[in-house]
Design a protein that fits this description.
It is a single chain. This protein has 189 residues and is mainly α. The protein has one domain (9-64, 92-182). 60% of the residues lie in helices and 0% in strands. It has helices at residues 9-30, 36-57, 95-114, 120-144, 154-178. The radius of gyration is 18 Å and the shape is globular. The relative contact order is 0.17.
């Protein structure tokens, strides 16, 4: 089992490739039942949420197979906007901005995938709450699963939630332009 799942960028890229293939297949299935815009938006939303999981729950670097219990954090950091790395292991820049940006596509795609139905007025706010809960769950897992060598931080939860909210706002702007409710269902052959 050792070395089978070690983490790092190469592991993340393989996992993201798997997410892309699965999401493409999902979109092709959804296109049989939904208009193309809606089908692709929903499949892309699923991909965005899965990619968030990959980026936040895969070890950033190759980690040892065992992390001693005494070396593992026992609580979440509540030092809001406290010390965070100046860069990220994939691209440079402020980690807080990257935490925000990673949730923007999910928020926007949530709106675009649901916009054609009147129930979106209920399901988009519920979906936004779901994205906030997803961020909290990720941080909890980062605290509980020492093997992934990640840290739980309340600042990440706030930044992720803000990113989802910004994404919902951008999604609302996008559907105002695209107006997916005007698209028809695909014809069945």
């Amino acid at each position: 089992m050792d070395g089978l799942w070690t983490g790092g960028i190469s592991t993340m890229l393989v996992e993201i490739g798997g997410v892309a293939v699965a999401s493409l297949l999902l979109a092709l299935v959804l296109r049989r039942f939904l208009p193309p815009f809606t089908a692709w938006s929903l499949a892309a939303f699923v991909a965005a949420v899965a990619c968030i999981g990959v980026l936040t729950l895969t070890p950033a670097y190759e980690v040892p197979s065992v992390i001693a219990a005494e070396d593992r954090p026992t609580s979440c950091s509540f030092d809001y906007a406290g010390p965070s790395p100046e860069g990220f292991w994939i691209v440079g820049g402020d980690q807080r901005l990257l935490n925000l940006v990673v949730f923007v596509p999910a928020g926007a795609l949530l709106v675009m995938g649901l916009a054609r139905w009147r129930a979106a007025r209920v399901f988009v706010p519920l979906g936004l709450l779901g994205l906030v809960a997803y961020s909290v769950a990720i941080e909890w897992l980062q605290l509980e699963v020492a093997r992934i060598d990640r840290a739980c931080d309340v600042t990440d939860m706030v930044d992720n939630s803000l990113g989802a909210l910004v994404g919902v706002g951008l999604g609302l702007l996008a559907v105002g332009v695209v107006r997916p409710w005007r698209h028809t269902r695909p014809s069945r052959s």
